[in-house]
Amino acid sequence: MDIEHVNLSQGNANINGFVQHPSPELRNMEKRPAILVFPGGGYYGCSDREAEPIALSYMAHGYQAFVLRYSCGETATFGEALEDAEWALETIRSNSDHWHLDPKRIALIGFSAGGHLAAALATMSKVRPNALLLGYPCILKSIEGKLAFPVPGLESTVDGNTPPTFLFGTSTDEIVGVEHTLSFANALAEAKLAFELHIFHSGTHGLSLASQVTSDGRASFVENRVASWFLHSIDWLNAVLGSGL
Asked: Is 9 exposed, middle or buried (0-12, 13-18, 19+ CB in 10 A)?
């Protein structure tokens, strides 16, 4: 395995990648699917809890996995963050041979504000992923007062090129209400686009994997039922991108 680190030529954005090599014992995985992770953090920063632990979990299921740390902070803008996201996806696709991945099987997952950025890339950009996963995403413009800078609402940006989408959240999220997730799912339904939606009975905001691995030692970040979102996402990705078997 190689650990790749790529810096954007201008700005502070960077990609950390975890790339597995081909093996004669894994001939069905010579060109792996890939996943790009956008951590949350209110656009003030990128949460480590929603970064490498997510990437490494998908790597263990056969993915070439990457984390983008994008432009954040009150001096940044949404436009800069979106440009970082476009750069990251284009960089992964353009290095598909070098990083042993299938450029037509690239998924994108974002959490909270990272979910906003992921949803924006999947609905507003010329370069888009082949599958989209959103964990308790910020979608409605009403959330921008809690974020580092103004952002567009995304409930009306879904179009015919929006990729198949997997969404999860909790009905008791006190920071980003479940209506954000539901509004995006409703937009996908109205556009007759493929999606899968999981709303769990309870759980705080920012659960990440909802396990001890990402809990920071806080019991509120461990929710065994919510933790099932991850394996549901693997099954869904296999259905959407193919399992490689």
From this structure: exposed
Residue 47's SS3 state is: coil
CA dist., res. 215 & res. 236, Å (int): 25
In order of their start, the domains of the chain are: 2-241 (3.40.50.1820)
d(CA 99, CA 108): 17
Does the pTM of the predicted model rise above 0.90? yes
Whole-number Å distance between alpha carbons of 203 and 188: 24
Strand pairing class (165-170; 195-200): parallel
Taking the chain (245 residues) in consecutive chunks of 10 residues, what is each chunk's mean pLDDT? 88 94 86 97 98 98 97 96 97 97 98 98 97 98 96 97 98 98 98 98 98 97 97 98 79
Q: H-helix or E-strand containing 61?
A: none
Pair 16, 4: CB distance under 8 Å: yes
